[in-house]
Structure formats: C-alpha cells, structure tokens
Amino acid sequence: MPAETSSFPAWLRRPLAVHGQWGSAKGLVRELALHTVCEEARCPNLGECWSHGNVSFMILGDRCTRRCSFCAVATARPGAVDWEEPHRLAEAVVRLKLQYVVVTSPARDDLVDEGSGLFAASISAIKARAPSVQVEVLTPDFHARRSLIQSVVEAGPEVYNHNIETVERLSRSVRPQADYRRSLEVLRLAKELGAGRLKTKSGLMVGLGEEPQEVRGAMEDLRGAGCDLLTIGQYLQPTLDHPKVTAFVEPEQFEDYRTWAQALGFSFTASAPYVRSSYNAFEALRGES
C-alpha cells in the first residue's frame, strides 16, 4: 500500500475492498506461479479488482531492467524467459472465467527482442484457449522498434497500451531510461500497424509537480499520436524510499481533465484519484465514460 496513508486528504481515504473472487484469484495466481502488476506495483485497487475477478498479469518475471522513480517493481537482474508462462496464463484466464485480460511486463532491455516475443505468445495462448476473451497489452517502449511492436500487434490484442506516465518536462526525472517522444512514437506505430483493428491507450500520473496546462499539452500530444483511450490518476508514494507526492490533486481538477480530454476527441477517459492504467479496463474499451 502507499506510504503515509494517514496524511491523505478526505477524498483519498476509503476502506479496503476485499470480497467475492479475491481469495480464489489470489490462490490461482500462486498455484500457477504467475505474477501480477497489481501486487508488484502495490496498486491501491488490488482488493476491489481481485474481488471482481479483474487481474492484470505481469509476464517476464517481477524484476525490471529500468529504475523509474515512481515505480514499486524491483530493479534487479531478471531471470530467464519462461516459455511455458503463456500456457499457465491462458489456464488462469479460463479458470477465472475472465472476459477481459490485461497483460503487462517489466522492461526487459536484457533480451534481444525486449520481451515482445513472449507478449505475442501470451496473446496467442489466451486466444487459443478462450477466443472470446479480449486482451489488452501494456508494454514497455521496446525502444520504439517497429518490428517488435509489430510482432505484438499481429498477435491480435484489442488494446495496445503504453503509458507516457507524466508531462514532458518531468519525464526525464520520472523515467530516466525512457523518453517522452519515444513513447509517443510507440503509440503512433501501434496505431499504424493495427490498421484500425485495435485501440491505443496511455496513462498519466498527476501530483508530481506538473501544471494543469502541461497535462493538457500531454493530452494533445497523445491525440496527435492517435491515442484513443486515456487514464489519469493520482501518484501515490508506494514506499518511503520513493519520491514524495508534490500535490494531492482535487477531484474537481480531475473532472476538468476529463472534460478537456473529451473535447480533444478521446473515445474514453478515466480521470479520478484512484484511476490506474488497468482499472476498469473493460469499460474503457466499451467507451463508457
């Protein structure tokens, strides 16, 4: 859970939601030796999402080759690629009776294909076992290499998600091994390669020191890259070792962001303090705002 929750403003205080399918989802993830970004990134929505059977799986291990300042995923030397993982992932999807699946990964700059091959294999395995299930991938930037993005797109996900995370001015400090313009190029390439067959999606965190007009500028850049779906949420300090929150953005500002995004032409925008990239992802694809 985020650090220093007792200092949260009133609109960020809420009970932990744990019920329904939470126990079965957790047990199955353990049984099949899978990882979830819900746990590794210490997502504040874990209890709510797992209780409703919404799980965001993280392939390629739980160690990242990059060190983004905001992220709780461990930075360390990753293990070998597990080519059986896509089959276990598909088994989990079937047994949890999921309709919509989010598949993400840490950055794997140590691999020749940066992990794109396992993304493609995971999509294919899910589609083979459960053809009606819709798949969203949330990928690293793959250094905007066209061939790697193409291999993922050709496997047939419904949504290609890549987060720019913050405004351009703050990007270098927040994601020192990434690049704001490169991330926009990832989204542009995915949209081009999808040829109308998929939606593209990105996400922003606020509360890191950005100005509202910079957020609007980032929205304009995303629309310029053809991005369809947008999420905006409050940055929360995952541990005391991570950067502190600069500001707790008030709900009215989140509503302004959503209004701006609608005016810019996003087909769906989720903008609220606890919104995260994968939160209510199925509703985003259906265009429910």
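That was protein one. Protein two is written in the same sequence-then-structure order:
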Amino acid sequence: MINPCDLPDGVETVPSPSLCIDKDIVRSNLDRMLEMVNGNASRLRPHIKTHKCGDILAMQRERGINQIKCATIAEAEIAAIAGVDDVLIAYPLVGPHTGRFLELMKAYPGTAFAALIDSEPGLKGFLEEAERRETAVTLFLDLDCGMHRTGIPVGETALALVKTINEHPLLRWGGIHAYDGHIHQAEVAERRKDFNAAIAEVNRFIELLLANEIDVPLVVSGGSPTFAMHAEVAAQSSRPWQCSPGTPLLWDAGYGTNHPDLDFCPAAFLLTRVVSHPGNGQICVDLGTKAVSAENPIHNRVRFPAIEKAKFLSQSEEHLVIAVADPAQFPIGTTFLAVPYHVCPSVALYEEAYIFEDGKLSDEHWKISRGRRITI
C-alpha cells in the first residue's frame, strides 16, 4: 500500500495532474466493508457514484457483491456492462429519463433494474412508459427519513403510492429506500442520536405497510457516515436489509478527518507537481479547479500529507498556490500525491486512473466513465 508521503516506483512517468488509485488499498477497503456486515455480501449495495469504474465493480463481484446503487442512467449502464446482476437507480427519474430507463432494461436483460418514486407525477411517468411498452417495472418508495432532499415522509400519501404499485399488473414492488445524508457529525454519539431518529421513521413506515397487509421485500438504507450503524440494523433484521455506502471504497480526507471510527484508508490520490516558485514563501502546483473538486472552501479541497502546515492561498483553473515554510524544500518539478477532500466529484473530473500495486506503478489503467450517457 502507498503512503502518500512516499512516491511509488515509476511515478516519474505519470503526467500531472492525474488521478491515481492504489489497488491494494481498494482491496483492503472492500474487505473492511464486508467485515462490517459480518462477511454477508448480500447486505451490501455500494453506490457507484464514488468511482464510476468497471474495474472496481469487478473487484466487488469477486467478493460476491453483485448489487449496486447509482444515481444516473449512465452509471446504471456502466454496472450492466460490468455484469452486475442487480442495479437500483436511487434518484427520481423524470422526463425522458423514464423512457431511457426502460430502454436500459431492454438493452441489458441480464441485469435486474429498479428505480425510485416519491411522488404521484413520478409514479405516473413510469406507469405511462410501462403501459406503452407493455413492460413490467420494479419500483422502490424513496422515504424521507430526515434529509428533506428527495423522498416522501411517512403517511397516507406514501402508503397510497405503494398500494398503487402493488395493484398495477405492470409494476413490481421493490421495497423501501431511505438515505440519511444529513447525518455526518464527527462525534459518534451525535451521529447515533440522529441515526436512531432516522431509522425510527423507516420502522414506522414498515409498521404502516404491514398493518395494511403489504410486505416489505427489501430495505436499502444509509450512506457512509452511518454505515456501521446500518450494518448493525441489517444484521438484526428479520427481513432483507442492505447498506449502501459509497465513499468507503476510495475514502477521502473529508471523511477521514471527520469519521476516523470507520477505519478506511484513502485509495485515490491526485498526482501533482510544483510548476513555479512565485516568491514570498510560495509554491505553485498544477492542481487547479479542473483537477480537484472545488465545491468546498479552498482550505477543504485537498490535503498534502508531505507538506506540513500547508496554507492554500489561491486556486484557479490550472493552478494552486500554497504558502510553505521553505520553498527550497520543494524544487520545481517536485511530485506530490495529494488526497482529495471530497473524492466523488474529484474522481469524476478524470477519464482514467493510473494504478499503483505492490508499491509501484502498474501497467493497468482504469477507465472512469464520467459522462452522462454511455449508449442509452
């Protein structure tokens, strides 16, 4: 495994900026994910949005993880191409996307696809497409368990949507999806408190469905900060229950700083080099906003483990200016492995990843399918 303060053999041939992934660390993170669900791969449905990479999907399948969650038609197609058996698009599909979803089903009959609904208009869109094509569609109810982004709260409207799914001959009831992305406190006790409130909503809806003689075939719940807590619920539940973290596959500096209790390691690095010494105790590297996710304030975009007390002064499209104690320590051409603060949108900026294995650059290159459309 690579220590980002050290450079693997062969790294001098990698152009900068580039995305690099340590295959050994991905293996370790996957093994840790499985360990957290007591080795039961059926309890994992990792989100593909973190990596968008068929090679990582192959590593998951080798471990028996043959179901994923995604947010786009393109991500779903990546999974189908990789041979994944079971794909849930965990995003409200509206407009042309409902038709694209059924085209996806037709193009990849070997993969079981499901989608979410959280409204009457959303359900109507799938009904119209299913009837027009005379094709059955599997739908999950997206339950709002506290994030208030998408989803529908527990109540009669949610119950009515599920009843409609169950009563229509071309609709298949898949189960409940509940994402608690609002829960990300660093303090575990605070996280646990909000998790308990969120899972109580899920259980309340399950009870409402059972009271109306509607079974719940599957619950897909949670993200990364609450992964361990959802794993506990999945292990104790009498019904099929899957956890759906994404970031632990590659991890990042943000989660690593705020959630050390989860014990994953960064596997994705941004290779960058010093391109200038502007003076005044500064260096400039080629890691601009086109090379690392810039949605956070400048001090929370990337970490340089090899630079103590780095202070980021400015960032533009192709430049990052850093104040350092002694610029002479970092001559022009110096290579760094930086850790993105938010890995998912950072990975999506690249079309391929250079691969490290056994402490050196390998011959592999992994494709990152960053586009919004593959073929469908």
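The radius of gyration is 22 Å. Keep this in mind for the problem set.
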